[in-house]
Design brief:
Elements lengths: L1 H39 L1 E2 L16 H4 L4 E4 L7 H18 L3 E7 L4 H9 L4 H6 L9 H16 L5 E6 L4 H14 L1 H12 L8 H13 L1 H7 L2 H21 L5 H23 L5 E4 L2 H4 L3 E2 L13 E2 L1 H9 L3 E18 L6 E8 L7 H6 L4 E5 L7 H7 L3 E4 L12 E4 L1 H4 L2 E8 L6
Parallel strand pairs: 2-5, 2-8, 3-4, 3-5, 8-13
Antiparallel strand pairs: 1-10, 6-7, 8-9, 10-13, 11-12
């Protein structure tokens, strides 16, 4: 019996020693990675626009020759993410010749913003609100829109503002009706009632197809009465209506809806670039999930996605543009953000400030928090270092918060960073976006 006890104790000591060694080795590896990241990071002095570009000029060699710069966000309600993307847009416009901006909002609903920044039509607050998402109805987005207007007032080469999503049909329907009144009053009268009944929950997909076919049949005539650009824009409005119905209007799983939405967002970004011409370059703004070049592997781990994997917008775009696209993910360590959450007192959903404490050791944010409070890292420059590579090429817990917040435990998702993004912007401490 005594001999058995000694064997058990020895085995326990051996396991404990192994655990201690692994913990010490992981800490050693983590420290090596931190030092390596420090040597490769491009430190950013501020997230605020109109702050000069001296600290961002090092990004020019990384981002040169790209047609798409996709910028994500780890939450839909973080002030500094929005401000940093505004500053990056200013840099891309003023130093790298970008003239097109796209955001994760319905394409037709963003046309009023484009009219505002190009011609001064409307009111800035109202057109931002008109996107229909509380996530974008913020002071930070408003500041960016007003800057775009100011820029266009003093420059010959104008910036354009687009949405690439398809979550609303109301504005698209109005646009189609108004266009037909100009080019084909007889046909408009025939389809007016059907179009007027279109809403997000009631779209006759067969009627949409019929109208698209009529547009194609009468293309030359319609272009003569308007212009090639106006015709193409109206047809795209019709396609957005079709996309919305195909995403929401039939009985299908969440997996199918997610897959279709990301596919259509990618196709809409391509349409924007084609519409703006061969020399056009676009910066797009969406959640980390949507800009990701990877495929979300749900398998059977989530019953809502048991049918397979979701190919995201970024992955679809990467198939089209390859090395002409660069994806930047965003991550943070701690702080506030705005989101929907459940009020524990009455069980109702409310919108407001949420807070997360500093990330734990078993996360990418913890490693990055030791590097610098605000920096950009290009993953390609990290490929030749085994310590940075070990962080970027293996699963790490990363913040993944959309419009809703369900507590710290549900705020992280395991990700392989260098599969999802080409680079990353890290902001240590955040604040919640300010609603208009």
């Amino acid at each position: 019996m005594k001999k058995i006890i000694i064997i058990v104790v020895c085995a326990f000591m051996f396991i404990l020693a192994g655990f201690t060694f692994n913990k010490q080795y992981n800490k050693y590896k983590g420290n090596k990675a931190i030092n390596a990241f420090k040597s490769k990071a491009i430190n950013i002095k501020t997230v605020k626009y109109n702050s000069g570009f001296e600290d961002l000029m090092a990004l020019k060699s990384t981002l040169k020759d790209k047609r798409i710069i996709a910028m994500g966000e780890a939450t839909h309600g973080t002030k500094e993410f929005f401000q940093m993307k505004h500053r990056m847009l200013q840099f891309l416009v003023e130093k790298m010749g970008y003239t097109v901006f796209g955001i994760e909002a319905s394409m037709p609903d963003c046309m009023a913003i484009n009219d505002y920044i190009l011609y001064g039509n409307g009111d800035a607050k109202q057109v931002v609100k008109g996107m229909g998402f509380w996530t974008w109805d913020t002071k930070e987005v408003l500041d960016m829109v007003e800057w775009m207007r100011e820029y266009n007032e003093t420059h010959t080469k104008k910036i354009k503002f687009y949405g690439f999503d398809m979550q609303s049909s109301h504005t698209a329907t109005k646009n189609v009706i108004e266009y037909l009144k100009r080019v084909d009053t007889h046909y408009e009268a025939n389809v007016h009632d059907a179009l007027s009944k279109f809403n997000d929950n009631n779209i006759d997909i067969h009627k949409v197809k019929e109208i698209i076919n009529t547009f194609e049949k009468n293309k030359d005539e319609y272009i003569k009465k308007s212009s090639k650009e106006q015709y193409e824009l109206c047809v795209q409005n019709l396609k957005v209506i079709y996309e919305l119905y195909d995403m929401l209007g039939t009985k299908q799983s969440d997996f199918q809806m997610e897959t279709k939405r990301d596919k259509y967002m990618a196709e809409n970004v391509k349409w924007i670039l084609d519409y703006e011409g061969e020399s056009s370059k676009i910066m797009i703004w969406a959640h980390n999930v949507h800009v990701s070049k990877g495929i979300d592997n749900f398998n059977d781990s989530n019953p809502e996605y048991s049918e397979g994997n979701v190919k995201r917008m970024g992955s679809n775009l990467y198939d089209m543009y390859k090395d002409k696209m660069y994806v930047i993910g965003f991550e943070f360590n701690k702080g506030d953000f705005r989101a929907n959450f459940t009020n524990k007192k009455n069980g109702q959903t409310v919108n407001g400030k949420c807070t997360l404490q500093a990330a734990k050791e078993e996360s990418a944010a913890y490693i990055f928090s030791k590097v610098n409070p605000l920096f950009f890292i290009d993953f390609k420059t990290c490929a030749d270092d085994k310590y940075t590579k070990s962080i970027l090429s293996t699963s790490q817990n990363c913040h993944d918060i959309g419009a809703g917040f369900s507590g710290e435990a549900m705020s992280f998702k395991s990700e392989i960073l260098n599969i999802r993004y080409d680079g990353l912007i890290f902001i240590n401490t955040t604040n919640s976006a300010k609603p208009n």
